[in-house]
Write a structure and sequence with these properties.
This protein is α/β, with parallel strands linked by helices and 193 residues long. The protein contains 6 helices and 7 strands, in the order ααβαβαββαβαββ. Strands 3-2-1-4-5-7-6 form a 7-stranded mixed β-sheet, sandwiched between helices. The longest helix has 18 residues, at 149-166. The mean pLDDT is 93.
Length: 193
């Protein structure tokens, strides 16, 4: 069974095909070699990114023990252990040992703002964040109709994050709300004069 089939059969959230295609195209276009992924799940996106080239190195973080174990198994089966370093950790506790060209954020949506700040010092000038789930099943367009209180709170946090990033002069943003579940590519401007 493929990793994608396993994810679908076991209700493991993975990036949608259109989002994955854009992520891979962004990596190629930016010649990204050092990548940090926040939220490994079962390794689906990390494996797809690593397959782009032998010189692509990915650090990926997962805190769920079962997902981490499955990701290890999948990475090993793919033969990409030399390119993918898996870390069993809560993202908030992770301290990188290098800078990255691209940071793929597909973890707790309510924490996107915190992740942006936490990893900003580890993103190369001109590098980018790749945020998935920025329209959250199109719910950002109709918050008032959301019945579940927790879901409504989450969607409000995503909307607030969108506003904050949009107004942040440290970044240039490419919005692709119509791709996958909404993708924002947020480039770190060089602060050097």
């Amino acid at each position: 069974m493929s990793i994608k089939s396993y994810a679908l059969n076991n209700h493991v959230p993975i990036i949608k095909d259109e989002g994955l295609n854009l992520l891979l195209a962004t990596i190629k276009e930016n010649k990204a070699k050092a990548i940090l992924e926040l939220g490994t799940a079962i390794g689906y996106s990390a494996i797809n990114m690593a397959k782009l080239g032998n010189d692509i190195l990915i650090d990926t973080i997962e805190r769920d023990p079962a997902m981490y174990a499955k990701a290890l198994e999948n990475v090993e089966a793919s033969g990409l252990q030399k390119q993918i370093r898996l870390f069993f950790s809560d993202i908030k506790d992770f301290v990188p040992d290098k800078e990255y060209d691209l940071i793929f954020v597909d973890a707790a949506k309510a924490q996107y703002g915190r992740y942006l700040e936490q990893f900003y010092p580890y993103l190369q000038d001109g590098g980018c964040y790749f945020f998935d789930n920025m329209v959250f099943h199109n719910m950002i367009y109709d918050i008032d109709s959301i019945q579940n209180r927790n879901t409504r709170q989450l969607v409000k946090k995503i909307c607030r994050f969108r506003e904050i990033v949009q107004d942040d002069r440290r970044f240039d943003i490419i919005k692709k709300d119509d791709i996958g579940d909404g993708v924002w590519i947020v480039y770190k401007r060089s602060l050097k004069k």
